[in-house]
UniProtKB/TrEMBL annotation:
Gene3D superfamilies: Ankyrin repeat-containing domain (1.25.40.20). It comes from the Eukaryota. This is Uncharacterized protein. ANK repeats lie at residues 29-53, 165-189, 304-336. InterPro entries: Ankyrin_rpt, Ankyrin_rpt-contain_sf. Transmembrane segments: none annotated. Keywords: ANK repeat, Repeat.
């Protein structure tokens, strides 16, 4: 192995003749002496090894590569000629990644090796590897202009061939900012700028997401901005620039060289504006640029009524939220479902719960209201109770932002509502803070324990009895036990009858 690596043909010959050396032995990398000799362009050693008969010209390394793969990677032309012309090596042999020698020659920008394989030995130019990429994909991605030209003029190359991500040669040249390759492909009909990959992205959107400004500039010199393709969601190129965090590109796209403003009032098919996208990706510079240039209004809503502040609040993007609020965003803007940014900040996501509370605090401090009703007539507080957002309720209680005993439009206070929903953990929290008043009835004359009895809220009933004792007042002649029973809650009625009866007996004993 060492003799082959250092190119000592005589030593290799001696080892074979005298020591009966095994020419198929593999080194640490899994390659044979044949692979090393090919990589080093050592044609004499190659002939010695192959002439010995101890190794096949297409012997495989551990990665299933042949000696021709090794030679092609390094552009070892003499070795390639020996392997192909003298020993008939398989030109289109595939390694473990499904790659042929031609693909490796392209990957390493070995022009002469590519020409030898394609022009002289008919290598398959449309062959695909495990990523479903052809040699042309790699040439476009790497900006290998001589190779790309050769493949298109000599080989069989389809510009419609797509890799596993649905990307053509034009997609890859744009994504990597290979301007010369991109323009070459356009000029030779080598692709469609409106073609979408499996993620719904046309070539220029990939360039924008990856900040390839030169590619975008080259395209703008050929075609006006407002005629460029949209992605699968109907989003223009400016959206991709914001997603990638490329503020310089956003300026380039939206402010022409003459100073005129483009990108005005742009929306995708869901009604999202450029500002929504900037909020979604926490791009504060983009938010400032968009609003300073009046590209859209700070409270522009998408088709479901959500503003950029809704989007930033849901993602808990504190910087974007703060910038939007400073720019005058309405903290009480409601979606068509009646949900505001405050609701958005409470959207379920356990991993971001603490950040959610921080976002909530920012909104509250900026004037977000708690009494706005949704389409079902619930406030954000009631929705939080129903969704077990206890941290939010605790934040409000500790901040003295809630009046839990004030009756709402339905005649219930928040204290009554928590009891009726049998939210024992939240009720216990309220009782510990001393904020629930057992002497405040509903609009219909029901006291807290009556509410629990009628709703069948057994946990609430137990907590109320333990904290305040039994309620002596009756409703239409019914005590709490009878009220529970008449409402179909027999087990709760038994509990209340037992507890309240014991209470009465204890009271009678004290009187005696």
């Amino acid at each position: 192995m060492l003799a082959a690596r250092v190119g000592s043909t005589a030593a290799v010959q001696t080892l074979i003749d005298v020591c009966n050396a095994q020419v198929e032995v593999r080194g640490d990398e899994g390659s044979t002496p044949l692979h090393w000799a090919a990589a080093e362009n050592d044609e004499d050693t190659l002939r010695v090894l192959l002439h010995s008969g101890g190794v096949h010209v297409d012997a495989r390394g551990e990665d299933r590569s042949t000696a021709l793969h090794s030679a092609s990677k390094r552009g070892s032309l003499k070795a390639m000629e020996v392997l192909i012309e003298e020993y008939q090596a398989e030109v289109d042999a595939l390694d473990i990644l499904g790659r042929s020698p031609l693909i490796y020659a392209v990957l390493n920008d070995e022009d002469s090796a590519v020409e030898l394989l394609v022009h002289m030995h008919g290598a398959n130019t449309s062959i695909r590897d495990e990523l479903y990429r052809t040699p042309a994909h790699y040439a476009a991605e790497g900006g290998c202009m001589n190779i790309l030209s050769l493949l298109f003029h000599v080989g069989e190359v389809s510009v419609e061939d797509k890799d596993e991500d649905g990307r053509t040669v034009l997609h890859l040249s744009a994504k990597e900012g290979q301007v010369d390759a991109f323009l070459f492909l356009l000029e030779t009909g080598g692709g469609d700028i409106a073609d979408l990959d499996i993620h719904g992205q046309p070539p220029l959107h990939l360039a924008a997401i990856n900040g390839k400004n030169e590619t975008i500039l080259a395209m703008l010199e050929r075609q006006p901005y407002d005629t460029l393709p949209l992605d699968s969601q109907g989003a223009p190129l400016s959206f991709a620039a914001v997603k990638g965090g490329h503020i310089a590109l956003l300026r380039l796209l939206c402010v022409s060289s003459s100073g005129s403003i483009r990108c005005l009032r742009e929306r995708d098919e869901n009604g999202l504006t450029l500002l929504h996208v900037a909020a979604q990706f926490d791009e504060v510079e983009s938010i400032s640029f968009i609003l300073e240039n009046d590209l859209t209004d700070v409270d522009s809503a998408d088709f479901s009524g959500r503003t950029a502040l809704h989007i930033a609040s849901e993602a808990r993007h504190m910087k974007a939220m703060t910038e939007l609020i400073v720019q005058g965003a309405n903290t009480n803007a409601n979606s068509i479902f009646g949900y505001g940014p405050l609701d958005a900040s409470l959207t379920a996501n356990k991993e971001k719960e603490r950040m959610g509370l921080n976002a909530t605090q920012v909104l509250l401090d900026a004037g977000a209201r708690l009494d706005i009703l949704d389409r079902e007539g619930n406030t954000v507080v009631r929705r939080a109770i129903l969704d077990d957002k206890y941290d939010f309720i605790t934040l409000l209680l500790d901040g003295k932002r809630l009046e839990v005993n004030e009756l709402g439009d339905d005649g219930l206070s928040l204290f009554h509502f928590v009891i009726a929903e049998d939210k024992d953990a939240l009720l216990r929290s309220m009782l510990l803070r001393g904020v629930g008043n057992p002497l405040v009835p509903t609009k219909f004359g029901l006291y807290p324990l009556h509410v629990a009895a009628r709703a069948g809220a057994s946990y609430s009933a137990q907590l109320l009895v333990a904290e305040f004792g039994c309620e002596e007042k009756t409703v239409k002649g019914k005590d709490v036990a009878n009220l529970a029973e008449s409402s179909g809650h027999n087990q709760l009625a038994i509990f209340l009858r037992s507890e309240c009866g014991r209470e009465r007996r204890d009271a009678t004993k004290e009187e005696l």
